[in-house]
Design goal:
Elements: H1 3-8, E1 13-18, H2 22-25, E2 26-36, H3 40-47, E3 51-52, E4 57-61, E5 64-68, E6 71-72, E7 88-91, H4 94-107, E8 110-119, E9 122-132, H5 135-158, H6 171-177
């Protein structure tokens, strides 16, 4: 099953953007789904997929949680536009905010956004408690990714899919079967 299929398998969800750096830079622990308080122009731009999560993080202020660093592009010709990187309030239960606060204070974790998506017509964000990876861990992640890619390629070659779309025998066989032009004597 490909990665795109995994993203599409969630019922009633339409992915806007995924934070690809999250799993590379962090070890992800508990995940939470939260709603977002947005302006109309922000929702319109999200429908076009104009958002970026790479530098996003969450903070708890006065018992409320805010998503910061998310860049939602400004809508051109909007009468009442929005700031692209303004803090956006997250809609979570008090018990969830308290659990996240304890994880951040006690275990020294951070909270990052991993996905932004539409669920039944509403914008949702998936946030996760995360611990930063050391450089050694990042190298391990790269090795695992390369090994998985090579394994997939080997399986594909074993199935006979390695020469798909090339048309004809390998180059060496073609040259033997080809008639050579005669040289003038």
């Amino acid at each position: 099953m490909s990665r795109a299929d995994k993203e599409k398998e969630r019922e009633g969800e339409k992915l806007i953007v995924r934070n690809k750096r999250a799993t590379f830079d962090y070890t992800l622990e508990d995940r939470y789904e939260a709603g977002l308080v947005l302006l109309g122009s922000e929702v319109k731009m999200l429908r076009d997929g104009a958002a970026e999560l790479t530098d996003s993080w969450c903070a708890i202020e006065n018992g409320e949680m805010f998503l910061k660093g998310v860049n939602i592009s400004v809508m051109p010709q909007a009468a009442f536009g929005h700031e692209p990187k303004r803090p956006r309030k997250l809609l979570l239960h008090e018990s969830e905010i308290e659990a996240i606060r304890k994880g951040v204070e006690r275990e020294g974790m951070t909270v990052i956004a991993t996905r932004l998506y539409f669920k039944n017509g509403r914008v949702k964000v998936e946030i996760a408690l995360a611990k930063g990876k050391k450089t050694v861990d990042k190298r391990e992640s790269l090795k695992e990714k390369d090994a998985a890619r090579e394994a997939r390629a080997a399986i594909e070659r074993a199935r006979g899919g390695g020469d798909r779309g090339r048309g004809g025998p390998p180059r060496a066989e073609r040259s033997e079967n080809r008639a050579r032009p005669r040289r003038p004597e």
